[in-house]
């Protein structure tokens, strides 16, 4: 088992691999979405310059449905449906981060920083889509809530590690050292993916011995027309379309706060990048632990839909409270409460989203469908980052927060009328039984 581990034959390896993949994608996110904006803000960058970097970084995510279709259609089945894409994307991430370390941009080189973020995130998006599809492929229906918790919590854990360490590394050693450290972490994950396999009998590397598993062969779309037909049949159902609005609203929240928090920390509390990095690291670590335990458990226990309504509502309430605390934003304790509270309440919205996405997905086109849903979130991030810059210039940060809270109230109301399908398990079992 240890020398030839497989994800589908072992629950432990299956869940650990999902956790590992989302920790891995959280590390560059922690660097680019948290540490770099903090570094820019403490060195005099404007809201527009930070929003430019966040917005450009979000563009590969917003187009990830294209990645999903490519990953579903083109596979190297003898290595598994998703593992070749995962290994390849990790390798490209390593190369991009090392290149960024040699470029060594300055804190107000926002065009260059945006280009680096775009390049790194292009690879991260392929990894993310392949990881989402892998979760759809190998997760049992009874594990859906736990899997959703690991997906959101794992990413938060990776963000925590990177936000805390990268902020400190940047403060003492510079941005190049942070890029290099992140690249080393990505190389370690790449080595793990070479070691573990999806299903028994598959190749570890292209030149190794092995063959495609019958289940992988059975559920692979035969052509583009078949892939699109299966994906669109599920995607264009009434409630699947309704579900897109709450997803977009969630993205707006991330885009808003990715710009707002560094500005508040630098301009009101007087924090530097190391202080904000430490706060972000602490916040994401706490969020990761809560989401992987309480978040996953409650999603399984209450159901994805009730949990989604609750988490959206709690997030809206938290944002309103932060707006009301504006006179005290210069207080370190209040600043810490905002950073930790926002991170925990936002991250808790993740497990039910992952569970609902998996419920709507057909395993044959899991990468395409899941990536379309999450692309909507990322389109919301791009919209949210620029919308915040605009609203902040019109009415200030506190009023922008009130607008964000109203958006999440709307999202909770839409989820209330949402009806989830109940036939995913039947589809999964039918595919498995046909080739048992």
Automatic annotation (TrEMBL):
Cited Pfam families: MFS_1 (PF07690)
Entry's transmembrane regions: 12-32, 44-63, 84-104, 110-134, 146-165, 171-195, 241-269, 281-299, 306-325, 331-349, 370-391, 397-418
Signal peptide boundaries: none
Organism: Altererythrobacter lutimaris
Main subcellular location: membrane
Subcellular location: Membrane
Listed GO MF terms: transmembrane transporter activity
Keywords: Membrane, Transmembrane, Transmembrane helix, Transport
Entry protein name: MFS transporter
GO cellular component, one term: membrane
Family designation: Belongs to the major facilitator superfamily.
Membrane topology: Multi-pass membrane protein
Start and end residues of each Major facilitator superfamily (MFS) profile domain: 14-423
């Amino acid at each position: 088992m240890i020398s030839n581990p497989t994800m589908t034959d072992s629950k432990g390896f299956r869940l650990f691999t999902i956790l590992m993949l989302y920790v891995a994608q959280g590390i560059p996110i922690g660097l680019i979405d948290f540490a770099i904006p903090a570094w820019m803000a403490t060195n005099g960058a404007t809201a527009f310059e930070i929003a430019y970097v966040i917005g450009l970084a979000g563009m590969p995510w917003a187009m990830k449905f294209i990645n999903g279709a490519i990953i579903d259609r083109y596979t190297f089945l003898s290595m598994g449906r998703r593992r070749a894409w995962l290994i390849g994307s990790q390798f490209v991430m390593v190369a991009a981060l090392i290149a960024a370390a040699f470029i060594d941009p300055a804190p107000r080189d926002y065009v260059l920083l945006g280009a680096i973020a775009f390049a790194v995130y292009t690879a991260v998006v392929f990894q993310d889509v392949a990881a989402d599809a892998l979760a759809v492929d190998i997760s049992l229906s009874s594990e859906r809530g736990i899997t959703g918790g690991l997906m959101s919590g794992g990413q938060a854990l990776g963000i925590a590690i990177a936000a805390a360490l990268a902020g400190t590394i940047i403060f003492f050693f510079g941005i190049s050292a942070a890029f290099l450290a992140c690249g080393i972490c990505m190389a370690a994950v790449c080595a793990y993916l070479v070691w573990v396999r999806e299903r028994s009998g598959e190749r570890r590397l292209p030149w190794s011995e092995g063959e495609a598993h019958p289940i992988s062969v059975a559920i692979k779309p035969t052509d583009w027309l078949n892939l699109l037909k299966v994906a669109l049949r599920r995607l264009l159902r009434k409630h699947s379309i309704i579900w897109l609005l709450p997803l977009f609203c969630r993205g707006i929240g991330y885009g808003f706060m990715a710009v707002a928090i560094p500005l508040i920390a630098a301009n009101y509390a007087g924090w530097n990048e190391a202080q904000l990095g430490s706060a972000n690291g602490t916040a994401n670590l706490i969020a990761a632990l809560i989401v992987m335990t309480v978040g996953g458990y409650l999603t399984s226990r209450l159901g994805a839909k009730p949990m989604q309504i609750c988490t959206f509502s709690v997030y809206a309430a938290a944002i309103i409270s932060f707006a009301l605390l504006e006179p005290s934003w210069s207080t370190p304790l209040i600043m810490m409460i905002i950073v930790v509270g926002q991170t925990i309440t936002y991250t808790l919205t993740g497990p039910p989203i992952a569970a609902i996405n998996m419920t709507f997905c057909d395993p044959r086109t899991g990468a395409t469908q899941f990536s379309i849903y999450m692309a909507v979130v990322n389109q919301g991030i791009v919209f949210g980052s620029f919308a915040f810059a605009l609203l902040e210039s019109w009415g200030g940060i506190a009023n922008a927060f009130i607008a964000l809270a109203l958006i999440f109230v709307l999202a909770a109301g839409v989820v209330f009328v949402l009806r989830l399908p109940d036939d995913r398990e039947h589809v999964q079992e039918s595919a498995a039984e046909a080739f048992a």
